[in-house]
Amino acid sequence: MRKGVWKMSTEKDKMIQGEMYDPSDELLMKERTNARDVIHQFNHSVSREERTALLKSLFGKTGNSIHIEPTLRVDYGYNIHVGENFFANFNTVILDVCPVRIGDNAMLGNGVSIVTPEHPLDAKGRNSGYEFGRPITIGDNCWIGTGATIVGGVTLGNNVVVAAGAVVTKSFPDNVLLAGVPARVVKEIDQHP
After folding, report:
1. Is 39 inside a domain boundary?
2. Is 40 annotated in the active site?
3. What's the pTM?
4. Which residues contact 54 (CB under 8 A, 6 or more apart)?
5. If 0-12 CB within 10 Å is exposed, 13-18 middle and 19+ buried, where does residue 4 land?
6. Which pLDDT tens digit goes with each residue over 158-175?
């Protein structure tokens, strides 16, 4: 950028950076529609190979081995980055207005929700139609149990297990079992060689 020239952020830039943005922006609506078209194909395909190819075309990054059972719901897809040996069971929701980064060997149970979007707490802000998001990072070797929810701003370390139905609202370190609403550490996990 030349000295003295200021570049205005687009609504997409603001969205990805976690700033307040307008989700009715024309480009964002077009990208959500594209993602829904790809996900519709994914959810209605009987071919595992076709589903894998669709995911690799939609997601920002994947490992070679990725398997997600239908149905899947996403906002954009391109903000989702998963590592090697990724598995998600039926009815997964990953709302990716901000980046979602998941490490290698991750497993998601049935009905897991990973959601980065948020709305202002005050009614006037919510009613404006603007929103914001916070990124989510999940380490290697994590297992997210059936019906668990992970909200924006959370970072989970490596080897974390999230119990079925837990709601994770804050970050946690490596090697812990989380359970409850809101989730808390119920056990440290020994890693055997």
Report:
1. yes
2. no
3. 0.94
4. 38, 41, 42, 45
5. exposed
6. 999 999 999 999 999 999
Distances (CA, A) of 57 to 67, 78, 95, 123: 14, 9, 17, 38
Task: Identify the CATH number of the domain in which residue 180 sits.
Answer: 2.160.10.10
Domain that holds residue 91: 11-185
Task: State the pLDDT at residue 112.
Answer: 98
At 118 the three-state DSSP class reads: strand
Domain assignment of residue 57, yes or no: yes
3-state SS record for 7-39: CCCCHHHHHHCCCCECCCCHHHHHHHHHHHHHH
Q: Structural domain tally of the chain?
A: 1
Q: Is residue 193 one of the residues assigned to a domain?
A: no
- 60 found inside a domain: yes
Active-site hit among 44, 81, 119, 192: 119
